[in-house]
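hey so u asked for the seq, here:
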Amino acid sequence: MAEAAPLLEVEGIETCYGLSQVLFGLSLQILPGEMVALMGRNGMGKTTTIRSILGLTPARSGTIRFSGHDVRGLASFRIAQLGIGLVPEGRQIFPNLTVRENLVAASANRLGSADPWTLDKIHALFPRLAERGNNMGNQLSGGEQQMLAVGRALMTNPRLLILDEATEGLAPLIREEIWNCLSMLKARGQSVLVIDKNVENLTRIADRHYIIERGRAVWSGTSAQLIAEPDLQHRYLGI
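ran it, structure tokens below
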């Protein structure tokens, strides 16, 4: 059987902030239904990679294809409408909207999913959001805000869900809830690109990994391959 075409294909992108170049010919791909981890120390270009994919910091060269579309150069909202949901670093929920309003404001099923995410399904995934439905966004704990950011992204019914620093700064119990959520999403067949520092959990649930060092993808492979090469973790992840 022929391998499925990549859902996301990034080839040789170069991205700069003004005169400062951050990405140097970076390439990666995600197949439908895959969970892929983007790994590396702070400041190596992980968030810039995501910003380039979404058109928030446009790549100056290279190719970015998503779901069969050449998206490099498209406005970021057009790229999102093709089916990318982002859980950004820092959550960036709307502080002056209630939990319910944050979720409903993002609700869309542009791609015609037969089993779309709804408010009830998000409440089943994160019961705390149902309990806090009438609270304003700025009245939530950090963990509750992260649940809300994940729920808001899922309410767009994305083909690809991207999480930047999925569990950073969260209490251990909340982290475990987020990892359980990601495991469930993988079982559901959701395509995911995730940035996080927890190698143990990433190798437990992700299919493949890319390690970024100074704006270049210096290694890629499966969880089994990463576990079998502990020197990689010491060299590139500071473990």
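The radius of gyration is 17 Å. DSSP finds ten helices and ten strands in the chain.
lmk if thats what u needed
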